Amino acid sequence: MRRVLFLLIFGIAGLAILLSLGTWQMRRLAWKEGLLAEIDNRIAGATVSLPALPDPDQDKYLPVAITGVFDTQELHVLVSVKMVGPGYRIIAPFLTDSGRRILVDRGFVSTAAKQAARAPGPLEVFGNLHWPDEIDGYTPEPDRNSNIWFARDVPAMAAELGTEPVLVIARSRTDPGVTPLPVDSAGIPNDHLQYAITWFGLALVWVAMTLLFLWRSRARTKG
Question: What is the pTM (predicted TM-score) of this model?
Fold first, then answer.
């Protein structure tokens, strides 16, 4: 009887823990979906002029319009686009009509078009402010000899090109050969539903195993 009672208590406690973890992930899912909806609304919001002092927290994803010309300097960030393959993001200095020098992510080109000449403008660029968080302990240092970067490090790129540490991700085309890669929320991880399913699935397995152990224990007792 003690063995049965122990298995029952152990099974109920484990089930409660697994169900609480699954429920917590469902709450996290609701929170993340609300956050992503807020980000999407901000990305698609009304376009404004470039703020005088953009704040990486307050102005992240802010839609802006800028007019001016591109410098001939560029930094090339190695990326891979789904269904297309490897290529580069083109990061270039942009001199605004008001005299500011900022960074613009013009978009994607294939590896073969890395060194192609690109139209400097003048033109109006529509895009979103962004400070991508793409650096971790495994990110290689830029290969400056080959002009290949492995992440969009806004402060480092601004220092390299002599601009403000401000990056606009273009959503309008700035050159016929460059495909814009607009900022969106698709790259923000949202795995909470999968985690919840995993915890609830483990809870079902836990119940089945507990019932099996109880049945075996009872069978041995009768035997």
Answer: 0.74
For residue 122, is the peptide bond before it cis, meaning its omega torsion is within 30 degrees of 0? yes
| Ramachandran quadrant class, 153 (left: phi over 0; alpha: psi -120 to 50; beta: rest) | beta
Give the integer Cα–Cα distance in Å for 27 and 47. Answer: 33
Nearest to 36 by CA among 194, 184, 167: 184
How far the first Cα of the chain sits from its last, in Å, is 14
DSSP readout, 143-171?
A: BTTTTBBSS--HHHHHHHHT--S-EEEE-
Please give the class, per CATH, of domain 48-170: mainly beta
User: Using one digit for the tens of pLDDT, what is the confidence trace for 5-64?
Assistant: 777 788 888 899 999 999 998 988 888 878 778 788 888 888 899 999 999 988 999 999
> Distance (Å, rounded) from C-alpha 183 to C-alpha 205?
41
Residues 19, 23, 25, 28, Cα dihedral to 10°: -160
Domain ranges for the chain, please list them: 2-39+191-222, 48-170
Encode pLDDT of 55-88 as tens digits: 998 899 999 999 999 998 999 999 988 878 899 9
Whose tokens are 């399913």? That residue is 197
Residues belonging to the chain = 223
